[in-house]
Amino acid sequence: MTDQRIDALSPGTFELDGRDVEFAPGDTILRAATRAGHYIPHLCWKPEYGPHGSCRVCTVKVNGRTGAACTVMAGAGQEVQSNTDELNAQRKTLLQMLFVEGNHFCPSCEKSGDCLLQATAYEVGMTGPHFEELYPNRPVDASHADVLLDLNRCILCGLCVRASAMVDGKNVFAIDGHGIATRLIVNSPSGLLGDSALQVDDCAAHICPVGALLPKRRGFATPIGQRRFDISPVSQQVEKDAT
Amino acid sequence: MTRDPEGAPLLHAPRKYKMATVSLAGCFGCHMSFLDIDERLLQLLEVVEFDRSPLTDIKTLGRCDIGLIEGGLCNAENVHVLREFRAQCKTLVAVGACAINGGLPAQRNQLDVGKILRDVYCTQTGISANSQIPNDPELPLPLNQVHPIHEVVHVDYFLPGCPPSADAIWAFFNDLIAGRTPHLGHGLMHYD
User: Fold this and answer.
1) ipTM of this predicted complex?
2) Which CATH number characterizes residue B146's domain?
């Protein structure tokens, strides 16, 4: 235990799929790998917001044991496997689960081509859903003048919750409920977005990695072929400046 | 057909692949995207011959190597046809978003099918008085919800897109006919 603590607090190097990756004190594996420009698939993590641990897509093998790369601390001499057939097959299964849990009808979604869930599914070669569709029927919240909330696309990454609390200082969102009934809720007397303190320029209004929380009247503005993930796959768009 | 110099057919000439296609709860857009392979269709016809398809006049399905299914399942007839395709086709392919996850037609799953029918055939403005929901047994009954085809039969391959691009369809055929597992890379793999 003592040795591991010292590792987590001092800089060093671990091995990711055979390549040496340097880390700083307090780094998780995902943070250090991303800073070094290496892609580990992830949905609920963003460099500025710390780990959430809900999507499990960043799961890697550290010295033979599986763990979420966004929560496991980097340690000197770790052997980390990420881009293996086994782990990529597990990631595909996780993505298939997320797709059938919601109504991900990409053909009519204004986030298509700019959606991290979709791009990650392309990356792991997901062609079909494998599981039975759940076809949830959660009401769309269009009460806000400038922001739309479609909970049938929400993957519960909690990024809007964190952005609203940590950056905007408003605590507009929370995650509520248990099991498959877990959903995003809005902190307003009526539970509607329109009665909350959210404004269209808030960080939380722009952080959704999928098509759940979207600014109104700005859909389909980017020509097909020029959208973020049309240009290059997600694995080539690593946010290298992560600190 | 391949012939020897004398003009008689060879005994063991390479057989053409038999391909059948169908549109269930589809929009025929996947078939149009298929035709977007343009003059490559002539190349395809050298190795493939069509069985039942909206592009042929064949009414009943025979034994086939490849069956392409466009569209999800929205009514009883769709289910019947799909089962027949599964029984007759060695390799069954779900083509397009509708066959894969129900597609945009599955947005009706948020509503009660009876209410939709009443809204369209009875209460909508602009229809004549006393209009009724069609009830002739000739017409297939709609299913309660729209379903993707893999929930009813086993599907061998999924070819995503709404529709899949002609290049994706071409790459898919080339892999399949060469005996390789079809693989769509960046640019060909899309869901929209």
Assistant:
1) 0.92
2) 3.40.50.700
